[in-house]
From TrEMBL:
GO biological process: neuron projection development
Entry keywords, A to Z: Membrane, Transmembrane, Transmembrane helix
Source taxon at top rank: Eukaryota
One GO term describing the cellular component: plasma membrane
Chain ranges passing through the membrane: 12-33, 53-84, 105-138, 192-211
The gene coding this protein: EOG090X085S
UniProt name for this protein: EOG090X085S
The organism of origin for this protein: Evadne anonyx
Length: 241
């Protein structure tokens, strides 16, 4: 009976969303760190351009992942408090029910905002992935056509910082092509593909959280009605006696 009672206290939907969120955040932080590092090395070693904002964006995305992980744990706790017999014992008092509904509403709003944030990150990661897929396609085309000793990025000068030299936009030589294609672009493309998938998983987990928090809010509100009915029944029985 004790084990069965514990199982009824577990918010399975919120727990599944938390597992999805942690998997997505773990993969996202690891792949974004590696992908951004490789992108920075491409700019520095191949195109001889130093860009400081790449490191700043990398740090901000990792911090955002940490904030999302902390929020996921808090939402899991809120879900545990609003599930099964725990809800009946915790939200028995009027102030506790108001606090529970308020906390659900706050986290519902935060989750709604974070959903759009992570959707924006997913779009950005998809664009970056397409850019690196284009670069990898140019590498494959260069390997097939022996009459092209260089990969020319002059037509993509808008992707590079202002002041980049025209001669730096041409990747020539066997060593430089090996460095650009095999060492950097191939690994970076895989990293950004995984980061895009991870961002999608995190967005999906936030959708789960939105549904769970909405249902928890309704459960706590219904608990208030049940408590009022129990009080009315108790009063009625007292009067009858």
């Amino acid at each position: 009976m004790a084990c069965r009672d514990c199982l009824t206290r577990i918010p399975y939907a919120t727990f599944i969303a938390t597992v999805l969120c942690f998997i997505g955040i773990g993969v996202f932080c690891g792949t974004v760190y590696r992908g951004a590092t490789l992108a920075n090395l491409i700019l520095l070693d191949v195109f001889h351009v130093q860009v400081e904002w790449v490191g700043i964006v990398r740090l901000m995305l990792i911090i955002l992942g940490g904030i999302m992980a902390a929020l996921a744990l808090i939402i899991l706790v809120v879900g545990c408090l609003a599930t099964g017999s725990t809800r009946h014992s915790v939200y028995r008092a009027w102030k506790a029910r108001v606090g529970g509904r308020l906390s659900c509403a706050i986290f519902l709003g935060l989750s709604y905002i974070l959903f759009y944030v992570w959707t924006g990150i997913l779009v950005c990661m998809t664009i970056v992935t397409l850019v690196f897929t284009l670069f990898w396609g140019m590498c494959v085309d260069n390997q097939r056509r022996l009459d092209r000793p260089c990969i020319d990025f002059v037509q993509f000068d808008w992707l590079f910082p202002n002041g980049t030299k025209v001669e730096d936009l041409q990747v020539c030589g066997r060593e430089e092509l090996q460095l650009f294609c095999k060492d950097y672009v191939e690994s970076a493309e895989v990293s950004f593909i995984l980061s895009s998938v991870a961002a999608f998983v995190v967005s999906l987990s936030i959708v789960h959280y939105l549904m769970c928090l909405s249902s928890n809010y309704a459960y706590i509100r219904d608990q208030e009605k049940i408590s009022d009915l129990q009080e009315m029944q108790y009063l009625h029985e007292s009067i009858m006696k």
